[in-house]
Design a protein that fits this description.
The complex is a heterodimer of chains A (about 290) and B (about 775). By secondary structure, chain A is of the alpha+beta class. Chain A has 3 domains: about 5-55, Uridine Diphospho-n-acetylenolpyruvylglucosamine Reductase, domain 2 (2-Layer Sandwich), CATH 3.30.43; about 60-175, Uridine Diphospho-n-acetylenolpyruvylglucosamine Reductase, domain 3; about 180-290, CO dehydrogenase flavoprotein, C-terminal domain (Enolase-like, domain 1), CATH 3.30.390.50. Chain A has 11 helices and 14 strands. Chain A has helices at about 15-25, 35-45, 80-85, 85-90, 90-100, 105, 110-115, 125-130, 230-235, 245-255, 265-290; strands at about 5-10, 30, 50-55, 65, 70-75, 135-140, 145-150, 155, 160, 165-175, 180-185, 195-205, 210-220, 225-230. In chain A, helix 9 runs antiparallel to helix 10 (about 245-255) and helix 10 runs antiparallel to helix 11 (about 265-290). The chains are: A alpha+beta (about 290), B alpha+beta (about 775). Bound molecules: flavin-adenine dinucleotide.
């Protein structure tokens, strides 16, 4: 399998990049780490006649800690998400997702933006981003617009990103002190796997009575897109965390998902694992708070 | 302390510096000026008639130098065993699997070659396809080969002793059925080659192969060139595991393209094509019934096996024999009946892979023995020890265990794993299991019927003295055979390894059947030892004359001539040597007579000192049909203990520890032996836990890459304790025998038995994915509830 021929651009600014996107429309594809795009181009699944490298977009690979938010440039490497202290301290579930992604070789190329834009149902980063309530910044020649990540995915490989838009950053509110989050994934082997199921949970407790004030649960590989498990969330909202409650939430999550059977795993198994995974990841989140 | 100076140690490998620094040449590093690139057109359909092939558009594409089809190259049948030559290089009237070769192109670069392939128009008439054993054997099933009716590649029907009579005296009879999955060997380096047809009408093929000799013969047979005009060379090879143990269509096509264009042609397979080529482990369905007495004595084994073969035979006829014959040991078993069926279907052909034919059979049986031990209330170790063979025992199917450290293997893994402390005492979800196995140390016969030597070796001394050059046509494919033969030559000659240079992998260097059936250490080792002893004798003969000392009163050790009686005055020889090396700063002074001086003196007396060696097995047992598959000059054996932890909620298995003992006879290089043991364990672990080549309903592989076809990563490997057990094999060079394949035998059943110990449910199907474990445990609980 060889790469087909294509034109190659290396814009130095977001504006320049957006202009190219506008000019060439559907025939151009942004290239971040290329760990998804290059594979698909070799297989002939996508055939852009022009590739727009994001390598030189200096402003897109920073992690910034702002007053109330954290802003992660779309071109931030997955490896950087593991090493970065801000991520480790404030967004541990995202760090866990990054650690679960591919191998060191892949993580040194793959970007957070590529992971989001490829919109794979089993991708390792979206669940954690979803439970942190992430927003994505989409840039076109008209300027930026901000979309909730939960509204971003439309189907396998499908997003609300328009052909003339670039994902430039991911924004997250800094989690409050009494909150915690976790990420877990289940595959065939220990690492380098395409998950059979994955998921994340975020809990913020009311400091006075210890009840769950804010909760988000997200799951991957159990629906056409990464999803929020709203029935599980409802079961948890306002309740006092307990083993029983987490079991109930796990059971409720089964109704949130619509898994399929494919060669990687059966729908029934995925559904059954939803309960286990949700319960366990809630326990992880709670432990985070207690730490 | 070892009695040896070189072997039985841990010398570092000869290829280490080259490989560590990236200087080692692999097939893709080889290029020639004016070289063309080849590509192959493979069938997109599992079964179809070929109505027409139109190559005109491909031929017109600028940069294309040749397009060849069956019309150009003929339809000489080839394969692995002459008993089943059922392939032609290109399909003429029908294709039999997705990947079957139809045409090939040579062009100035790879992109052009691939584009040309896509321009070849083939009109097919689709035929109904059969994609499983059941479909292939169903009444009225489409037939793959007119010559082999019923879609049977081969059937085996054997009985040793009287199985039925045996069952009558048994106290317990146990039956079970077991199935593994089609494997891919997942070597790092996909096969590739460069064919160079020269101006003298001779063909040189550089290829990533395990068997230069068999490739040479097949290329000669299919191209019609005299064998003497075909030379096959093997650079460093990135693993083979059996899949590179026969000539493939890629090699043959490159040869024809080079012959047609007169230019070198390089052809590499992609990873996806490796899955289409396949030739790896079959899917085996085993049905076994074992009868034992109350005290655990094994009496009878009745065994039926179906091999999901794919479209052509490849090694299949040998595989189906091995699947039966390798259960003859390592236990005393008087009665054994085997019915084996190797079945064609429209998938890529399966062949030989590490532990050829025996791995799934071993897994099925060792699991059944575990069930029997449990029912008899015996410890699994005790059941094995009760039935174990001893050195000198012969199996009911005539395999002679000329050495067998089975008892020591069992004892050392039992102690090493602290079995007695753990068995039956682990908490729920944790388990411990064990199993045994054995394997041939070289197939007793070549793949083609012949009286040929299995290997020849040449040792030549450098004319200036001090260096021995070892030439064999054996195949170093990463296992360390060059180092082993360097060490054997050095030991036999009496010099340090640094005074030996090893060259191999070239059919011009002699005959060697190659790296398969774990044969090289024993067989090539013998030939190398004989050649080294031959040159040593020649040197000593010259010295004997010069110094008037009988040959038997001298030897060479650590690069020095040793005189067993009084040391003669050799100053005249030394003076002669030094005179010839005036200006040299390292001439010998006061030390004893050196090998360097002796070999120079020998050259001056006789010309080049060349020694030769050869080997073929002595007459082996077995007069029955199929006895050629399984008989070997020696057998390696092993025992393993595996500890697991199972997550009962998800079905995920974590292998916590593996303890492995293997009897390799005398270990030539202990580190290499351990490397083979660890490699076997990781391959067995992968097959047990993760690996399965999967197909869609159209016969296409859907996980033809190493992301979706999952082999163990470093993280999946547990700590491994390897225990090298050394028996002294009378038929081996310095007492050495195999380790390359025997070590994989117990891995899968030891894992199966450990998982059972952890979850209380037997699993009879591989791989042990979390989903399979979870479902089996759920089903078991449902059944418990219902009853
Ligand atoms: C061997 C291997 C293992 C893998 N393992 C995992 C795994 O365990 N978990 C996992 O989640 N993924 C895995 N992946 C998939 C992939 O590596 C990740 O999804 C990665 O994050 C993709 O990032 P990238 O920067 O390489 O994306 P690219 O390949 O560069 O891009 C992916 C897609 O997104 C588009 N795109 C990229 N950036 C932008 C942007 N800023 N704006 C708009 N569009 C953009 C591209 O046009 C392309 O369509 C694996 C891939 C391989 C090859």
């Amino acid at each position: 399998m060889l790469l087909p021929k294509f034109e190659y651009d290396e814009p130095r600014s977001i504006e320049e990049a957006c202009e190219t996107l506008r000019t060439f429309g559907e025939t151009v594809k942004p290239l971040a780490g290329g760990t998804d795009l290059m594979v698909n181009m070799k297989k002939g699944v996508v055939r852009p006649s022009r590739v727009l490298s994001l390598k030189k977009l200096k402003t897109c690979n920073r992690i910034e800690k702002l007053d109330a938010t954290i802003r992660i440039g779309a071109c931030t490497l997955v490896a950087e998400l593991i090493q970065n202290q801000v991520i480790a301290d404030t967004l541990p579930a995202l760090q866990a997702g990054a650690k679960a992604l591919g191998s060191p070789l892949i993580r040194n190329l793959a970007t957070i933006g590529g992971n989001i834009c490829s919109a794979r149902p089993a991708a390792d980063l979206p669940p954690a981003l979803l439970v942190y309530g992430a927003r994505v910044v989409l840039h076109s020649q008209q300027g930026p617009r901000t979309v909730l990540l939960k509204d971003f995915f439309k189907g396998p490989g499908q997003t609300v990103l328009r052909g003339d838009e670039l994902l430039t950053a991911i924004e997250l509110d800094r989690p409050p002190a009494n909150s915690g989050a976790g990420y877990l994934n289940l595959g065939i082997r220990k690492v380098q796997d395409i998950d059979i199921i994955n998921g994340a949970a975020y809990l913020a407790l009311n400091p006075r009575d210890g009840t769950i004030e804010k909760v988000r649960v997200a799951l991957g590989a159990v629906a056409p897109t990464p999803i929020r498990a709203s029935l599980a969330e409802q079961a948890l909202q306002g309740q006092k965390p307990s083993q029983d409650l987490f079991v109930q939430a796990g059971q409720a999550a089964q109704q949130d998902c619509t898994p399929i059977t494919d060669f990687r795993g059966g729908a029934a198994y995925r559904k059954a694992m939803t309960s286990v995974l949700v319960r366990r990841v809630l326990e992880t989140a709670l432990k985070q708070i207690e730490k | 302390m070892s009695e040896y100076d070189v072997i039985n140690s841990r010398l570092s490998r000869l290829d280490t510096p080259d490989k560590a620094t990236g200087r080692a040449l692999f097939i893709d590093d080889i290029s020639f000026s004016n070289m063309l690139y080849g590509a192959i057109l493979q069938s997109p359909l599992p079964h179809a008639g070929i109505i027409n092939i139109d190559t005109s558009a491909a031929e017109k594409l600028p940069g294309v130098k040749a397009v060849i089809t069956a019309k150009d190259v003929g339809t000489v049948k080839y394969g692995v065993s002459p008993a089943r030559y059922d392939e032609t290089l290109f399909c003429q009237d029908k294709v039999r699997y997705v990947g079957d070769e139809i045409a090939a192109v040579a062009a100035v670069d790879q992109a052009t070659a691939q584009e040309a392939v896509s321009l070849i128009k083939v009109d097919y008439e689709e035929l109904p396809a059969v994609l499983s054993v059941e479909e292939a054997l169903a009444e009225g099933a489409p037939q793959l080969h007119a010559e082999y009716p019923g879609n049977y590649t081969a059937q085996v029907h054997q009985e040793f002793g009287d199985v039925k009579a045996g069952f009558e005296i048994c106290d317990l009879i146990k039956s079970s059925t077991f199935v593994n999955k089609r494997q891919d060997a997942a070597f790092i380096e996909p096969p590739g080659c460069v064919a160079v047809f020269d101006l003298h009408g001779a063909l040189t093929l550089y290829s990533s192969t395990q068997v230069p000799h068999y490739v040479q013969r097949t290329v000669a047979m299919v191209t019609g060139l005299p064998v003497g005009k075909v030379r096959v060379l093997k650079p460093y090879v990135g693993g083979g595991f059996g899949i590179k143990a026969s000539a493939n269509a890629n090699e043959l096509a490159a040869c024809f393209l080079s012959m047609k264009t007169g230019r070198p042609v390089k052809m590499n397979l992609s990873r996806e094509q490796v899955f289409k080529l396949c030739r790896a482990r079959h899917q085996f369905l085993h049905k076994m019934t074992t009868g034992v007495k109350k005290d655990g004595t094994l009496v009878s084994l009745e065994h039926e096996c179906y091999l999901d073969g794919g479209a052509y035979s490849s090694f299949g006829i040998a595989t189906v024999y091995y699947a039966g014959s390798l259960l003859g040991g390592p236990y005393k078993l008087q009665n054994m009946k085997y019915d084996g069926y190797r079945v064609y279907n429209n998938k890529p052909p399966c062949g030989a892979q590490r532990g050829h034919g025996g791995v799934a059979a071993r897994a099925a049986w060792e699991q059944q023995l575990d069930m029997i031990a449990e029912e008899l209330g015996m410890d699994p170790f005790d059941l094995r020890l009760k039935n174990m063979m001893q050195a000198g025992d012969v199996t009911c199917n005539d395999l002679n265990m000329s050495s067998l450290g089975m008892e020591e293997c069992l004892q050392t893994v039992q102690d090493g794993s602290e079995w007695k402390k753990k068995k039956g005492r682990l908490p729920k979800g944790k388990g411990i299991g064990m199993a045994c196995g054995f394997f041939v140390s070289g197939a007793g016969y070549p793949i083609y019927r012949s009286d040929t030597y299995h290997c020849t070796a040449i040792v030549k001394l450098a004319e200036d003295g001090g260096l021995a050059q070892v030439y064999t046509a054996s195949a170093e494919i990463g296992q360390g055979s060059d180092t082993a033969f360097g060490m054997i030559a050095a030991e036999a000659l009496g010099v340090p390894l640094s005074d030996v240079r090893v060259m191999s992998g070239d059919t011009d260097m002699g005959v060697d059947l190659g790296a398969y059936s774990s044969r090289q250490t024993l067989m090539t080792g013998h030939a190398v030892k004989e050649a080294a002893e031959d040159v040593k004798h020649q040197v000593l003969e010259v010295l004997s004359k010069e110094l008037s000392v009988p040959v038997q009163d001298m030897s060479i050790k650590k690069g020095r001539v040793v005189f067993h009686r009084q040391e003669p005055d050799f100053s005249e020889l030394r003076t002669r040597y030094i005179k010839e090396h005036r200006g040299w700063t390292d001439n010998p002074k006061d030390e004893p007579l050196t090998f360097r001086e002796a070999s120079r003196i020998a050259y001056l007396a006789r010309g080049s000192i060349v020694g030769t060696g050869k080997y073929k097995p002595h007459e082996l047992g077995g007069k029955y049909k199929g006895a050629a598959v399984g008989t070997s000059p020696a057998y390696g054996c092993s025992a393993q203990v595996v500890e697991v932890e199972v997550d009962l909620e998800t079905g995920q298995i974590r292998i916590e520890k593996m303890t492995d003992a293997h009897d390799c006879g005398l270990a030539i290089n202990k580190t290499s032996v351990e490397g083979q043991m660890e490699g076997s364990l990781s391959m067995g672990l992968g097959e047990a836990m993760f690996e399965e080549v999967k197909f869609d309903a159209r016969g296409r592989v859907i996980n033809a890459d190493l992301a979706e076809y999952k082999i163990p990563t470093a993280v999946d490997m547990p700590p491994i304790e390897t225990i090298v057990v050394e028996s002294n094999e009378p038929n081996g060079p310095f007492g050495a025998k195999e380790v390359g394949e025997g070590a994989i035998m117990p891995t899968i059943p030891a894992i199966l038995n450990a998982v059972y110990d952890a979850v209380g449910v037997r699993i009879f199907e591989l791989p042990l994915t979390p989903e399979r474990i979870y479902t089996a445990v759920q089903d078991y609980h449902e059944r418990q509830k219902a009853s």
